Structures are given as C-alpha cells and as structure tokens.
Automatic annotation (TrEMBL):
Belongs to the cysteine dioxygenase family. This is Cysteine dioxygenase family protein. One of its GO terms (molecular function) is dioxygenase activity. Signal peptide: none annotated. It comes from Actinoallomurus spadix. The keyword DNA-binding does not apply. Keywords: Dioxygenase, Iron, Metal-binding, Oxidoreductase. CDD domains: cupin_CDO.
Length: 178
C-alpha cells in the first residue's frame, strides 16, 4: 500500500473516523451500508477533496481516484469523476457500497436479473448532497453523468479497492426489458 493511500486527505478525517466506527460494528452488509451512509451524510466533503487535476476527469472515460484505504482493508474511499455523457456498463459489486454526489448529477438505472435478461426496475437522478448505498445481492445498476458539466461522487466500498482493483463483480451483457 502506498503512503498516499494510508494518509487521510484533508477534509476526510471525520468521515474516515465515522466510517471506521460504523464498519467496526461488524453488522451485516446491508446494515453496514446504512450505517456508512449515515456517516457520509454527516461528513460529505466538497469536490476540492480531489486535486484540481483529479477534478478534470478524462475525455475518454470516467475515472476513479483512490483517496484512502483503511489499514487492514476493511474499506476504501474513491472519488469518481465523470464528464458529460460518460457511463458505466451495467454491473454489480463485490461488496457493499455507499456513494454521495459532490458535484453535478448522476443518473442511475436499477435492474434485476430474470432468467436470461435484465429488467429495469427504477431510475434515480442523484444530485449534489444526495447519499445512497446498497449491498449485494440486488445491486445491479448503471450510472451516467446526465448533466452538462463534470460530475463528481465519493464512493465508499467495503474492501481494499487497491487490492481488488475494481468494485465490479460482474458486468452484464444481457438483453434489457422494461
């Protein structure tokens, strides 16, 4: 693990302390996501928790910046930066996840798997200050920047993201109905 990942960035100290306490309750994944979401609501940082260069994003794809990994790997904080129109594939996750929007709007489409296809079961437009979380199973979604400017969100994953390299468990390439 690099020193950058072990050091808490300015503006994240209270959040890291709160998330650590929530995770150390050793609840199931759904309850942990609920507890961590409450901490993120209390300590949601501003976009300047990322450097000016990190906030620019990439013209070709959304980018993630690992901001902190808890020693022992129980959670990671990751900043995601999306330019207009950038989108994830439909995917699910290896662990619980909580996210908060720091800038812009992120449009989320929610799915369930049925036999050999996916069914879209909902959509959300997540605006600045909104926090949400989920835990597998039942966490299939796609996210896109639906706004005109750069969108930034902070994600907290229940794993050492520097070790597993991605929060994505599976990318879905099934027909979508609904």
């Amino acid at each position: 693990m690099t020193a950058v990942l072990e050091t808490v960035r300015p503006g994240l100290e209270d959040l890291v302390t709160g998330v650590r306490a929530a995770v150390n309750r050793h609840a199931d994944w759904r309850e942990t996501a609920r507890l961590v979401a409450a901490e993120l609501r209390r300590h949601l940082p501003t976009p300047d928790v990322l450097t000016a260069e990190e906030r620019l994003g990439d013209p070709d794809r959304y980018v993630s910046h690992t901001l902190y990994v808890e020693p022992g790997g129980t959670f990671s904080l990751v900043g995601l930066v999306w330019r207009p129109g950038q989108v994830t594939p439909i995917h699910d996750h290896v662990t619980w996840c909580v996210f908060g929007v720091l800038q812009g709007v992120e449009h989320e489409e929610l799915y369930v798997e049925r036999d050999d296809h996916l069914v879209r079961v909902g959509t959300n437009d997540n605006h600045v200050g909104e926090v949400s979380g989920f835990a597998p199973p039942g966490d299939i979604h796609r996210v896109r920047n639906s706004g005109d400017g750069v969108a930034i969100s902070l994600h907290i994953y229940g794993t050492d993201i520097s070790r597993v390299e991605s929060s994505v468990r599976r990318v879905y390439d099934l027909p979508v109905l609904g």
